[in-house]
Amino acid sequence: MAKHKIGWLPGDGIGIEVCAAARVVLDRLGFDAQYVEGDIGWECWRQEGDAFPQRTVDLLKRVDAAMFGAITSKPVKAAEAELIPELQGKGLVYRSPIVRMRQLFDLYVCLRPCKAYPGNPINFKEGIDLVVFRENTEDLYAGVEFNPVPQELADTLGHLSKSFAPFQKLPADEYAISCKINTRRGSERIARAAFEFARAHGRKKVTIVHKANVVRATDGLFLEAARSVAKEFLDIQVNDANIDAICMWLLKNPFDYDVLVAPNLYGDIISDLCAQMVGGLGFGCSGNIGAHLAVFEPTHGSAPKYAGQNKVNPLATILAAKMMLDWLGESDMAVRLEEAVVAVIAEGNVRTYDMGGANTTMEMAEAVASKL
Ligand code: IPM
Ligand code: MG
Fold it and tell me: I need a surface site. Which of 216, 287, 323, 369 has the fewest CB within 10 A?
């Protein structure tokens, strides 16, 4: 019997190619796994009206960890228009499968390391080494949204909040409401994960990202909860910054930052910013981590325009596989894999188009595998 049981969910578009590339590397490492392939993505949506079918949910209950590629997402109306005719007009609503997966399995930590590997020609600056902890289940991603807005909700908000007055008389379909919901428990546990990581990895500082000066209820709670957790970690420096300001400061002084912790949406935003500083989405790797399951993925999407061309950079997915090895306790393999990536980037002989080269997805994977 294989040592690890791994859910394998390539999804759509370039997800298929980058997962195949990561598999070449995992196989060369000698990673002892049984892979269980699962259906997820746009074709499931079109044919079955569910991009994340129950059989795939059940599959994830039976594995130790999973690798996920990418999935096409489209706005509600565009998604409905692509359903097979039999499923149209049934009120099916497309919701991002990865967001649902994070919530269903309570994968509350979104861990996104952003390291500038030496010699990568598209590093913003050499030496950048940031780690983003993004809360992964709440906030504006809660999925509590209204468009049109029910009268009952408008009446209640009118009673409860003076600030609602400018909206109250609007026709129901002339505005929309998306609820930002943040809990103390959710805020504390992502903060704790960030501080524990900092301590375990010899990191010096954690920066709490928020907009508590304006979004006082939810971000106020997040900031307060994170600060209270910080008191348990007196060996780690703590500071905080507004989301807008930190976007400037991160670019200006990336070496002033170390570990960043943020509510879901701000974490989504800064993780793209940080990824761009270390070579862009071709290098953005991500772990969605809960108490019982962790799902690893490249941060980039399905990039339909590049699908099937064997062109995109698989390193984000290969680095996500490295994160999976760490999480499974296969530290030696994780180290070897990262060293192989470091060597390929430093040598500069094999580069995908984003790095200014002309090598294919599979050539990059083979180059990494050849170092193992
Ligand atoms: C990410 C992505 C997703 C998100 C999308 C694809 C739903 O941008 O993982 O950062 O918003 O979380
Ligand atoms: Mg994102």
Answer: 216
